[in-house]
Amino acid sequence: MQNFRSFEAGPDPFGRTWKVNYVWQQNAISIRHADAIDVKFTLEDGDIRDEKVIALPHPALLELSARLGRPLNDAWCARLAAAHLARMIESGEDVEKALVTMSAADMEQASALVDN
What pTM value is reported for the model? Predict the structure, then answer.
């Protein structure tokens, strides 16, 4: 994925391709008292519009960053979240949820896509 700010994802299990737009990113401690980075996206397919927040748990994110020797920055977090959202759309996994928390394994999988 070249542009995490605006991209297409899919097809989903129903054959739809979604237009995805990055909205914001912030430390979740300020909005829901969680030790995570929240990244919000909007999804559109014709008349259907949805919002998703992808949460990256801070402890697992720090561990992954240290293990990979990769700096932890906003762009990397947004790319990890975007890669995970694209996989969710294609698989249909967790698409009913407005807030999805990535596991350490999810972040590892997303980093393999983002860093290649």
Answer: 0.94
